[in-house]
Amino acid sequence: MMRIKTASNHRVRRELDKRAPKLVETSKKTLFLHGTKTSSVLNSVLTEFYHLKKGTAIKYSRKNENVKPFESGGETSLEFYSLKTDCSLFVYGSHSKKRPNNLVLGRTFDHHIYDLIEVGIENFKSMNSFSYDKKLAPRIGSKPFFAFIGEAFESVDELKHLKEVLLDLFRGEVVTNFNLAGVDRMYVCTALTSNKIYFTQFALRLKKSGTPVPRMELVEVGPSMDMVVRRHRNPDDGLRKVAMKSAPDSTKKKEKNVVKDPIEGKIGKIYIPEQKVGDVPFMDKSKGVKRERREAREAKPAQKKPKQQEEEVAE
């Protein structure tokens, strides 16, 4: 039998707890990997995506022959890197004659492959090809807007899947409050066909409008490219159910012995203590018996006593 290794001290146990799945997620990190062969276009895409994710990303520049996400047995090395770097997102680039400029975007749950989507890069333009004020460059920690233009993002499964992955990849850390000045960029995805989108980035310039709300102008800063969906793999239903489990509301008071059924609705359990009939004291003179005797006596006709009858005869 296989021996299960446990943490040897408290420090190792704390590190393992940090990497374990959590109901309230922390900020997700992204791992960038190169395949056996890559092109100059693909290297530029990986580099610029890494700069957009700087601070929450790790990039490996060496070639990885054993990483093959869509093939059986090719996920082992990828899951190992995910566990080693504690990254729940990954971007893998490869180039071949059959699939040129191939980019694989994926997510992991508990350091196992959750879902995958493969896109081809066409008409790529780097950030250096756009002329703009360098002060408008995105800052680390800023929050972006997202705009998905086209009905295909709601009707086509491949684009719906790509939309979810892109939102997870670029949204950054989830916050409740933020400064308006920190929202300085915007990603725009336009559905060109049922399997092709146009991806680009804009910088937001705030100008005076004469009102408390400033006027916003969009300045394209890149990178821009066309993404053609080639292959995608949805998560398993059982794994999706576990991964989508949300944390309970801490402010809501918990109801004991109450469950919710999709058909019958709210169901509760009532616990009745054991009835000890043998310990109940028995009363000799019960009120019920007295009442029955009184009613029986009133129902009989009135009879005179024998003594009174003899006195009447003597008279």
Distance between the termini: 119 Å
Assembly type of the shown chains?
single chain
The chain-level mean pLDDT equals 83
* Binned strand content: 25-35%
Main sheet characteristics: 10 strands, mixed
Report the count of strand segments. 12
Which class best fits the helix and strand makeup? alpha+beta
Subcellular location: Nucleus, Nucleolus
Biased composition (Basic and acidic residues): 250-259, 282-301
Protein name: Ribosome production factor 2 homolog
Pfam families: Brix (PF04427)
Describe what this molecule looks like in 3D:
By secondary structure, this protein is an alpha+beta fold. The protein has eight helices and twelve strands. The chain has helices at residues 10-19, 40-52, 76-85, 152-155, 157-170, 237-243, 287-299, 306-314; strands spanning 30-34, 57-63, 89-94, 102-109, 112-125, 144-149, 185-193, 196-207, 215-220, 224-233, 258-261, 265-268. Strands 1, 2, 3, 4, 5, 6, 7, 8, 9 and 10 form a ten-stranded mixed beta sheet that branches.
